[in-house]
Structures are given as structure tokens and as C-alpha cells.
Amino acid sequence: MGKSRxxxxxxxxxxxxxxxxxxxENECLELEWIRRIxxxxxxxxxxxxxxxxxxxxxxxxxxxxxxxxxxxCRCFQESFLLEYVKAxxxxxxxxxxxxxxxxxxxxxxxxxxxxxxxxSGYNYTDLPxxxxxxxxxxxxxxxxxxxxxINATRPTDIxxxxxxxxxxxxxxxxxxxxxxxxxxxxxxxxxxxxYRCRFCLRNHMNQGIYSRRDVPDLVDEIEQNDNENVYLxxxxxxxxxxxxxxxxxEIKKRKIRRKYICYGRADFIADxxxxxxxxxxxxxxxxxxxxxxxxxxxxxxYNKHNxxxxxxKCIRICHKHQIRLMAMFILGLDxxxxxxxxxxxxxxxxxxxxxxxxxxxxxxxxxxxEEYITSDPSDFDYLHLxxxxxxxxxxxxxxxxxxxxxxxxxxxxxxRVYDFIDYGAYIRSFIGNxxxxxxxxx
Length: 442
Ligand code: SF4
Description:
This protein is an alpha/beta fold. The protein is built from 15 helices and 15 strands.
């Protein structure tokens, strides 16, 4: 084995204080899968997740040596990751590989001098061969005689991946919360999503091919990881009725007690109250649902294949069974002041306690007719406008956005929804960000 010391890296989500650090932190599952695969064949692997590390990346590598760098990122982390790649080349001069969601969507953006290889798929089991020098691997891009060669793509069967090595997660017991659920372990049973919502990049993952693990294997992984909180991070965990019935039955049979968080669609919840009620019985706490909008015509334009009526039935079911519904909405580019106010009134009327609002963001790599107003990848974090609003100026759109955020924040505070966060620090960073943004838009 020529190259033995591998550094697996995930950069920070943001360099402003305005992020979800300490509130929602994502376990670096992709790196943990890769760690398992490489360690199984004898590599010495180190993980660096800047979300929880206190040293800067440059400090971290200053007195260490590695032969291989593998880094993953989302679009909004692109510049941070490329900065790390550069620093790694200068310090260690080893092989650099870049992967992750952004590499699946926009691999060409990662073709820079310091990057040697880009892996734009989930075929992590090919990494040992790639490190050994094999370039005839699906989803791999590499340089030959100064030009980038892009190999053919191939979806990955999720069943071919081993369970992740979670040593890093377990060595940070005070990190990786999901709101008030501390140290929430990520488990994924599927790649991609069978739906085709227009705004969403999730259904583009794995070349758009849905692949799911078997129920016993999923339940084995939950059972053998004695972690109280389990975040089922499938893009739509509530997809297949039979799968869910088998999952619930297996969990009950083995008497496994955990608290669960998962994503689901409102139409499924509206049609399967019995499954949702049984899921609650075995420990479901948070259901994350993209209600997206309060008007049917907008849901239609998003190709959501859902209705406001279903959304409202979903809300009633969650309330009835005391499931914490995290209601997610998209703030459209066509919003006028009234749309922001109507949305707030709707949230209040339906007594939605947990709410997340995202700015409509056609990610780089998705088809869109909208006009981009920024080329800075770190703006693609769903907290910034990346396209021009239709009816309001950028400044006015943001004004309504901030007003909505403030109203939601005050509502949450009154209802004591987020009592576990440091309100003072959050308010200070929020106000700081408003002023920063005002300067940017001046
Ligand atoms: S929004 Fe949800 S249901 Fe729609 S494609 Fe994305 S993950 Fe699938």
C-alpha cells in the first residue's frame, strides 16, 4: 500500500456567527462510511469536522502529515473546502480528492489546480482502488495531460456500503444536537428521492436513482448503536407504507427504545395516520415536513404533487398525536409584503410551533430561469437571496424577510420553544447579520 495516512475533512458551514451551530449539527456520516471502508483495508484515517473542531484547518495539519486528503462539501462550503485543499497541497503535498453533494451537482466547479480527483457519486467502496491509482472508476474525474477526464456515471446501491465507523461521533458526546435532542445519531436508509420537486437537489443525488436498505439491516444498525436519539436522514423516510410497517414491527419486536427525527411528506402523513401514530408509539419526536407554501398554485408550480388540504390534515394529525411537526416553508421570489404577512398569519392560525423558512434557492447545477444576483457559493445557504425577486427590490424583500424572522423568533420565544438556546447570543448575531447584509445591499 503506497499511501496510508488519510485525512477526511468537512469544512465549516459558515464563517459568520449566523448559523445553526450548537442548535442543529450534522453528523459527518459520509466521512464515517469512508473511514470504515479505508480502515477495513489497512489505512490510518483521521477525521476533521470543522463544525466541532476548535483548531483551524491550517493549525490542525501544521504538525501532522498525511498522504491523502478527502473532503466533502455542500455548495455554500465550496470556497472553504477549496481553501483547505490548497493548504493541504502546500503542507502535505499528497493526493487530494473532493466529493460530497456539491461534487454530485457541480463537479466542474471543483476542477482547480490543487484538486487531483473529484468523486461525484456514492461509490465510496471504490476509494481504496482510487487511492492505489486506478482511474477507471465510475463517477471519477481526473486530470490527464493537463485536461480533466470525466468518467461515466453510475448510481450506487446503498446496500453495498458498510455501516459507518462512528468513533468520531462518539468522541464528541456534547455535540451533534437536533434542537433539544442531544447527540443525535444520523442513520440513512436510502439514497435520493423518488419525487421530483422542482426546487430540490435531493432527487438529483445518486443520478436520481432511489436505493434503499433492507429493514432488518437498518434496525440492526439502530439496535447496535446505543444512542438515545436517532435522526433518520433519508430525504423522505416516510415513503413506502410496507417498509414502514415492517420497520415499526421490527423495532417493537426487539423492544428498541429510541427517540426519532425524520423527514416525511404531508400527503403520506395525511393518508397514513395509523402508521404515524404507531411511529409515535415507538419514539417519533420530530417530523420534518416541507409544507412549502400556503397556496395550491405554488405547490403545483413547485411540482410538489401535494395540496394545502393535505398539509392541513398533516398538521391536525401531528397535533393530535403530539408529534412535533417541523413545518418548513419556502419564501418565494414572487413574494410581496402581503405574502410574508399571510404566511405568518397562517403559522399562527394553525398553531405551528416549530417552523423553518428558507429562501427559494435554485442550487447551482439545477435548471432555472431565474436571474442570479450572486456568484458567491457561500450565499447558497437558503438564508441569502441568490436570485432577483420578481416584484420587490432586494432591499425590500429582505426587509419583509427580517420582519418575518423577528415575528417567528418572538413567537417561538413566547411559546418557549427554543429555551435550550442562548437567546442573547442569537439576537446579537442576528442583528449583526442584518447590518452586515444592509451594507452588502447598499
Ligand atoms: S422536496 Fe422532499 S419530496 Fe420533494 S424531491 Fe426533495 S426530498 Fe423529495
